[in-house]
Amino acid sequence: MDLIKILEYKRWSDRRILDAVAELDQEEQNRALDFARQQLNHMVRVEELFQARLRGVADPHDSTNTEHLPELDELDARLMAANKWLQAYAGSLTASQLKENISFTFVDGKRGRLSREEALFHLINHGTYHRGAIGHALDLAGGQRPADTYNVFIHAAEPERRG
């Protein structure tokens, strides 16, 4: 599959969940909003950690979450910036560079090694997991859970496939 297309799908899916969370009422649906912010904060921090690992620079965080949760608009800006970076980065790599291994230390102190392609796939898959958890919280709070499957994305992006 085309990695760039899959990263476009990730960005699209992240945008949809961010927009749905933004619709939550801060007074009546505050538990769901706080849960979504916690999940988004974790997503953003993991993306920023792996971005640093892919670039070969020091980790910007010493944990994958924080006690204090940033506001939704900050999380939105950081997640969209991470998506933009991932797409540009993936587009700049050759096939052989995608296969290159990167070695790093997780925030728990354990060592890890992934190919650049595997690290990108991890971020795609990681976001899917946490968007699902946020979607469940939206369901429980009576919010609007956006459909974010690849099938919905590809048919929205390429409506001629419906014919």
UniProtKB/TrEMBL annotation:
Keywords: Metal-binding
Entry's Gene Ontology molecular function annotations: metal ion binding
Gene3D superfamilies the UniProt entry points to: dinb family like domain
SUPFAM superfamilies named in the record: DinB/YfiT-like putative metalloenzymes
Family annotation (InterPro entries): DinB, DinB/YfiT-like
Domain of life: Bacteria
Binding site for a divalent metal cation: H42, H126, H130
PANTHER family: PROTEIN DINB, SLR1116 PROTEIN
Family classification: Belongs to the DinB family.
Protein name: Damage-inducible protein DinB
Organism of origin: Herbaspirillum aquaticum
UniProt lineage: Bacteria, Pseudomonadati, Pseudomonadota, Betaproteobacteria, Burkholderiales
